[in-house]
Every structure is written in structure tokens, then in C-alpha cells.
Amino acid sequence: MEKIILRELTIEDEQAFFQGLKEWANEELSWYTFDWKPGVSFAELLTILENTKNGINLPINYVPGTMLYGFTDNQTIVGRVSIRHKLTDFLLKRGGHIGYSVAPRFRQKGYASEMMAQSILYCKKIGIEKLLITCASDNIPSWRIIEKNGGILENEIYDEVDKEMIKRYWIDLQ
Ligand SMILES: CC(C)(COP(=O)(O)OP(=O)(O)OC[C@H]1O[C@@H](n2cnc3c(N)ncnc32)[C@H](O)[C@@H]1OP(=O)(O)O)[C@@H](O)C(=O)NCCC(=O)NCCS
Fold first, then answer.
1. Can you give the CATH number for the domain in which 91 is found?
2. How many angstroms separate the alpha carbon of residue 140 from the centre of ligand 1?
3. Can you give the residue range of the structural domain that contains 37?
4. How far does residue 141's CA lie from ligand 1's centre (Å)?
5. Count of domains in the chain?
6. Over the stretch 4-63, which tens digit does the pLDDT of each residue have?
7. Which of 138, 144, 148 has most ligand 1 atoms within 8 Å of CB, for mutation?
């Protein structure tokens, strides 16, 4: 596994971002970006991401959030982590503070585990005291990553929206 730096996008990352987008051509786009769509410029995307981080122009019931991308040394994006700064009733049940993904070509190399470890440090830095991470019970890599990073299982519940069992884990950051 190459070394990974998990960080926010900057204006310098336009090429890396659009190169990374190609990895998701046959996948659900939200696993890479919530905010970019055809017609949105990179500069506009950065503005949206900055606003979301600062709680500006959020859709109703949304909380401030940071999108971090995992970069290799040669500025290739392997995946991303979305960090919700606070929990809502919805996120408390399903979603939690952190959502993450690694592009198919880069999976099973330990990147998601490393990105999760760096996300936890970010969450601590922004003052989250108890971190909630949820995943589908049948998503084996996902719950392995959470458990490897110290997640303590609170329970497994049935999610009416996606009609599946989910596991809910906490990590104490105090
Ligand atoms: C889940 C996901 C992020 C894992 O990314 P990854 O970079 O392949 O994960 P890692 O390489 O760090 O592997 C994590 C663990 O899962 C295991 N693993 C990875 N893929 C696996 C698979 N298909 N089946 C079983 N175990 C698997 C790894 O062996 C590793 O376990 P170990 O550390 O005990 O050896 C990636 O598959 C993904 O983006 N999936 C789609 C989005 C998603 O489900 N996100 C999670 C939402 S909660």
C-alpha cells in the first residue's frame, strides 16, 4: 500500500479530481462526490465544499460536513471520506459521522483502513467526542475497518429505508 494523505481538495487538485472521477464511471457517483455534477466547475465545487463545512446554504436537516480525499504520493485520489460534524436523529440511526469509499481498482490494499484512521484524527480535531460509524451488517470490509479502528458495537438494527440490518459502532475520542 502506498502512503495516503487524507485532506480537503484545493484549487491545485482539479486534474486529480477529474481523473479520480473516471474511476467511478460505472458506480454510484455519490461514493465519490455529492456536489459535483456535469456543468459544475471545479471552482464552484470548492465553494460548495467550503460552504458545507461552514454550515452555509445547507439543505434542510443537513449538518455541516467536510469531504476529505485520500491522495497517494503522486496525487492520485483513491477514495474519499465524508465527515458529518454533528448527528441528527436520522444520522444517529443510520449514517453516523463518517461515510467512506475507495474506488474499485484500489480496494483490498488497506486504503480504507488508513483513511478511517486519519478521519478519526480529523474528528478529534474538530471536537467530536463520541464518534458514531454505521454500516450494513453484510458489508464485511466496512465493519472490519471500523472494528480495526477501535469501534465498539452498540447494536444491530433494522433499517426501514434500505431494508437491511445495520451495525452501529461508537469510538470514544475523549
Ligand atoms: C468498504 C470499502 C471502503 C473497503 O475499502 P478497502 O480499501 O478495500 O478496505 P481495506 O483494504 O482497508 O480492507 C478492510 C478490511 O476488509 C477486508 N476486505 C476488503 N474487501 C473485502 C471483501 N470483498 N470481502 C471480505 N473482506 C474484505 C480486508 O481484508 C480488510 O480486513 P483485514 O484488515 O482484517 O485484513 C470499499 O469496498 C468501498 O468503497 N465499498 C463501497 C462503499 C462502501 O461500502 N462504503 C462503506 C459504507 S459504510
1. 3.40.630.30
2. 7
3. 5-172
4. 3
5. 1
6. 999 999 999 999 999 999 999 999 999 999 999 999 999 999 999 999 999 999 999 999
7. 144
